[in-house]
Amino acid sequence: MKTVTCTAPVNIAVIKYWGKRDEKLILPLNDSISFTLSQDEMCAKTTVSISPKFSEDQFWLNDKKESLENPRIQNCLKEIRRRASKRKFDGKDENVWSWHVHICSKNNFPTAAGLASSAAGYACLVYALGQVYGVEGDLSPVARQGSGSACRSVHGGLVRWHKGEDDDGADSVARPIAPPGHFPDLQVIICVVSAGQKKTGSTEGMRQTVASSSLMQHRIKVSLPSRIESMMKAIEEKDWPTFCDLTIADSNEMHAVCLDTSPPCVYMTDTSHAVASLIHKYNDLKTDQGDINHKVCYTFDAGPNACIFTPGAVAKEVLPLLLQAFPPPPAQTPKEYVKGIASQP
Ligand code: 2P0
Question: Distance between CA 141 and CA 218 in Å, rounded?
Fold first, then answer.
């Protein structure tokens, strides 16, 4: 028997992936850019075991036995086994690729609440499978077939997922663009507005947006090409204020196309908008004080929870403001509430 345990962190997109050009291969309509958070905060942990004695594949998610019929898991498994079947071990073929697998996966944060759980989950699963079956090489296109955003969690730091042009998805891969400490002393605050499951899953929401939103055409053809180039330049030049402006603009545009969808995909709540408003007021104050390097930015995924990127020096100022404006429910201790402050992504 061979056993491997891996962890993979969530990634938070600052240029969002929303919409596919190929549903089956999970090929996106646009490039996206994200931060992979640090390993010690929000992450998935997966243990995989393979043995010639196992009679079938089995899967447990958050301690509950789940079916392995999910085609996305099957696609990842098939691709890893295909790659493993082509490998030679110490000069000879080995049939480990044909051994059944037992998979046990856990998230240390709410699953399917718009907190990138599938990204961490599939990145972790694919990496662990790669290790246990002895597969080398770029695993981001395999993780992509589990969940699009998962391909970005295969790398640390700032990562760009290239949409690619090929019909078979061979060039739709994630590449690191800057290391974890690129913006020194950066902190991330995750404001959990609601840990409940979202009403419209990302896959379905994207499908509806592509089918019905005319604003989406503008996003793909006009806004994104220049925003992505500006974001790459801001990252290269470590231009924090511009990075903040672009991150906020892209989050708001993604949620605008969600609202332009029929039926509308409504992910942000009144509380989400109140958090965004507080951040704008804070940034206006910093701008008035001529202190734009201490700006902060927010971004919202397909859910109501805010992800706030802040320079460490102002995190100490922003967090008490948030706690004062949005007091934690009495059942939660302040420690639990602030658990979302990640160390440097
Ligand atoms: C992102 N999201 O770029 C965007 C922002 C949510 C909002 O990627 O259908 O779970 O599995 O490829 O990867 C969530 O979408 O969707 C997502 P599928 P996925 O992070």
Answer: 28
Does the ipTM exceed 0.90?
A: yes
The domains of the chain are located at 2-178, 186-340
State whether the beta carbon of 161 lies less than 6 angstroms from ligand 1: no
Q: What is the pLDDT of residues 105-142, one digit of tens each?
A: 988 866 545 566 689 999 999 999 999 999 989 999 99
Q: Which residue has the tokens 């098939």?
A: 78
Closest CA to 260 of 207, 202, 214, 201: 214
pTM (two decimals): 0.92
CB 293: neighbour CB atoms within 10 A?
Answer: 13
Residue 92 Cα to ligand 1 midpoint, Å, equals 40
Q: Which CATH superfamily is domain 186-340 in?
A: GHMP kinase, C-terminal domain (3.30.70.890)
Q: CB-side exposure of 142: number of CA atoms within 13 Å?
A: 26
**43 C-alpha to ligand 1 centroid (Å):** 16
Q: Which of the following CATH numbers is that of domain 2-178: 1.10.600.10, 3.30.230.10, 3.40.640.10, 2.120.10.90?
A: 3.30.230.10
- Specify the residue for token string 């460490």: 312
- Going by C-alpha positions, the residue among 57, 34, 71, 292 that lies closest to residue 180 is 34
Residue with tokens 């950066």: 186
